[in-house]
Design brief:
This protein is 53% helix and 6% strand. The chain is mainly alpha-helical. The chain is globular, with a radius of gyration of 29 Å.
């Protein structure tokens, strides 16, 4: 991100070049056109930011439009994916580039940078983007009006730069202003873009902030410099006001963190965490130290006996280590100058055959790092850490983060856990204590000595729907046994799931949040958009095991008796017996195993008569804490809170209109549309990863969807996903036998339209090829 900002400064602000290409775009003339057409003519009406921007720039020169796209890149650069996902950023920028002809695009290295960001700039950043963006345009125009030598001086001296910005009308664009200050002078100005937060920081440390006559940005910088123990940059570290120990000096601990502390206190009263968690990890670290000294694998055997890493990962690691000539040399990459950076050095040399996937690789590296200092470098496990982040609202690593950066973020989280306990009067000894509490809170079954009320509240809290526990007992009660939950499937992060699906992690985060809130969502979109595949993959991750996932597919004759329960003939012909359908079966499974989520996937929901199939379940879906009597049984029934439903729905099927409002009120709806994110970029990302030479297919599909001009008939990416490589022969077969049949129905009688949508025509259009190099027909 900082490299991209530096590139923008050097190429565009100091010079007049394009950020994306080797020509002149960042000129005063183009900046003045944007001031005239955008800043001075705001569109405050209804519509999307990009849609209104298209209208505002309708008469602007092509160069000014391209500058508008590049400034939008700069505007989006600082935002974390939790505020706006990388693919959404790219979609916005490419959309503006598409206002003019010429096939302009964002270079790949700059596009990848958009997958990361530094901070969550707040709701105003998205809601009032037009204000932030207008301020950026005015700032660039103000810089461009300066003579070259003076402009360089302003961009090299932070005080001169602040004075320039002081001369602009801020008009509610503080986020953009403070972002600019940090991006262009990151060694001076702290990454704090909220005016309220800046005021609180100054008020908390007034003696460190200095004179009140100084600009606020310099006062915050003074606080940061003074708090840094050895000089902010001399040690390579800086004060992050959003991390421990600073964040709760100027802010306050929120309810989510307080709940974690209260439950942590409660679980320590019932479980001897030193005996259950700490001792064996320290013993393992001692064995690692012995192995490091001896250079033999016998002392590593404990890795197979504990749940610190997945047993499959342990088997693969030992198989590699036993046969690798440089195995111990690779391990020394981790143990020498140990820390988060050594994790990346180690994993860069560890082959995928030894450990595959972020979950397996980082859990292995974190355990092995214990040979240096287990108190400083505790074990990391993907699912437990991800849940802890979610329950506390702690900032997750960006999707593009390396394994070492993910581990560093985990250490920051553990420090924050320690700080939260200290501020509640129950200090922990070290990071290993913090890790032990987090592991117990995220994975242990509730202790048997807890009351039913406590157990229910704890399970609600762990599902994200509860708060603090009932009143803590006055006297600790230590139990000898604690039921640990084994990780039955390979441990993986949501980021890995997103990468496998070629989706933004921010999108999946949103889906998970919707599921946790209402317990049921519907994926709606045209065929070929990957709805079912995403549902199955996400369901397995949520449940932690394929055994806790069930899929049913609705069809026109599907009934209540098939789905919920109904009478079926006995095999001996003596009558009928009441048989539970898939819903009641998985509901009972979930009720018997309340510490795991269970997921029922309903594929093609709208192909059945939904009201007839669901019956009284409409009530139970909305009121999970209440019971209802079913048609065929007298005793009341409830749907357990750990049962989640993911349904898929084909929007090309006109029966979607038959869904009643009662059903719509009980589900959240998530769109899967080929022309918008998250689906729009899936095919391109898939081809980038697996078949780079066929990236033109993504262009051809986009071009075809433009010609089709009907979202319900658009071509989805799933047609082109194969376990074996695509070649020209297979591509022709896919197009002819999977894509065109639907298009022939849609464009019945319009032969000219089908000719435009032939693969040969589309390939020539997007590649500029000739008949000789486009053999497909």
């Amino acid at each position: 991100m900082y490299a991209a900002a530096q590139l923008w400064r050097d190429r565009c602000l100091l010079d007049e070049l394009s950020l994306f290409e080797d020509d002149r775009v960042s000129t005063l003339e183009n900046a003045e056109i944007l001031v005239r057409d955008y800043v001075l003519q705001p569109d405050l009406g209804e519509g999307t930011f990009r849609g209104k921007l298209r209208g505002q720039l309708a008469t602007s020169s092509p160069g000014a439009v391209r500058l508008a796209a590049e400034l939008l890149y700069v505007h989006l650069l600082i935002a974390r994916s939790s505020a706006i996902g990388g693919q959404k950023k790219l979609e916005l920028i490419r959309g503006v580039l598409g206002f003019v002809d010429g096939g302009h695009d964002v270079p790949e290295n700059l596009a990848r940078t958009l997958e990361s960001g530094l901070l969550n700039p707040g709701q105003g950043y998205n809601n009032y983007r037009w204000r932030q963006y207008a301020y950026l345009i005015e700032a660039v125009a103000a810089l461009k009006r300066l003579p070259g030598a003076e402009r360089r001086q302003v961009l090299e001296e932070p005080r001169r730069f602040v004075e320039l910005l002081d001369g602009l009308e801020e008009n509610g664009a503080a986020i953009q202003r403070f972002s600019l200050e940090h991006l262009l002078f990151p060694d001076v100005f702290a990454p704090v873009v909220s005016r309220e937060h800046r005021q609180k920081i100054q008020a908390t440390w007034p003696e460190l902030a200095g004179s009140t006559s100084e600009p606020a940005s310099f006062r915050v910088a003074s606080v940061a410099n003074a708090l840094a123990p050895t000089g902010r940059w001399a040690s390579g570290e800086f004060v992050n006001f959003y991390r421990s120990p600073y964040v709760w000096d100027w802010g306050k601990i929120n309810d989510r963190w307080n709940a974690l502390v209260r439950w942590g206190q409660r679980i320590r009263q019932s479980i001897d965490l030193t005996g259950q968690e700490r001792d064996y990890k320290l013993a393992g670290a001692a064995a690692l130290q012995a192995a490091r000294s001896s250079g033999t694998t016998s002392d590593l055997a404990f890795l197979r006996r504990h749940n610190l890493i997945d047993w499959r990962a342990a088997d693969n690691f030992f198989r590699w280590l036993d046969g690798a000539e440089d195995g111990w040399e690779v391990l020394n990459e981790l143990w020498g100058d140990a820390g988060p950076e050594s994790v990346d050095r180690f994993l860069s040399r560890l082959p995928r055959s030894a450990a595959d996937g972020t979950g397996a690789r980082l859990s292995l590296a974190s355990v092995l790092l214990g040979a240096n200092d287990a108190l400083r470098y505790p074990p990391w496990r993907a699912r437990a850490v991800d849940l802890a982040y979610r329950l506390t609202g702690h900032t997750k690593p960006e999707p593009a983060a390396t394994e070492g950066e993910r581990y560093e973020a985990f250490l920051v989280f553990l420090d924050q856990v320690m700080d939260a306990f200290r501020r509640n009067g129950v200090p922990l000894g070290d990071r290993l204590d913090a890790q032990s509490i987090i592991w117990a809170l995220m994975t242990y079954d509730p202790p048997e000595d807890w009351t039913e009320e406590e157990i229910a509240a704890f399970r609600d809290w762990r599902r994200g729907t509860g708060a603090v526990p009932p009143q803590l007992p006055a006297t600790p009660d230590t139990a000898d046994e604690a039921g640990q939950v084994s990780v039955e499937e390979a441990d993986s992060t949501l980021s890995e799931v997103a990468a496998d699906l070629h989706l933004d992690e921010a999108f999946l985060d949103k889906v998970v949040a919707l599921l946790k809130d209402k317990k049921q969502v519907i994926f709606q979109g045209t065929p070929g958009t990957g709805k079912t595949h995403v549902a199955r993959t996400l369901a397995k991750w949520l449940a932690g095991s394929a055994d806790r996932v069930r899929l049913v597919q609705f069809h026109p004759t599907y009934s209540y008796e098939d789905f919920v329960e109904g009478y079926r003939p006995r095999q001996d012909g003596t009558g009928f017996t009441l048989i539970s359908g898939p819903l009641l079966t998985i509901a009972e499974q979930a009720r018997a195993n309340p510490d795991h989520d269970h997921v029922l996937i309903i594929d093609e929901l709208n192909r059945a008569n939904v009201a007839r199939v669901f019956g009284e379940l409409y009530f139970l879906l909305e009121y999970r804490d209440q019971s209802a009597h079913l048609i065929y049984r007298q005793q009341p029934i409830t749907l357990p809170p750990n049962l989640l439903l993911i349904a898929t729905m084909n929007t090309a099927d006109r029966s979607i209109a038959l869904l009643d409002s009662a059903l719509r009120r009980r589900f959240y709806f998530v769109d899967f549309a080929p022309h918008t994110e998250p689906v729009a970029g899936v095919l391109r990302r898939y081809l980038d990863k697996h078949q780079h030479d066929y990236r033109w297919i993504a262009d051809a599909v986009e071009k075809a969807n433009e010609k089709i001009a009907d979202p319900d008939a658009a071509i989805g990416p799933s047609h082109f996903f194969r376990n074996t490589p695509i070649d020209d022969t297979w591509l022709e077969l896919i197009w002819e036998h999977a894509v065109l049949p639907t298009l022939r129905d849609h464009f019945h009688g319009r032969t000219h339209k089908l000719e435009e949508l032939s693969l040969t025509a589309l390939r020539k259009e997007v590649t500029g090829g000739t008949d000789e190099d486009t053999p497909l027909s």
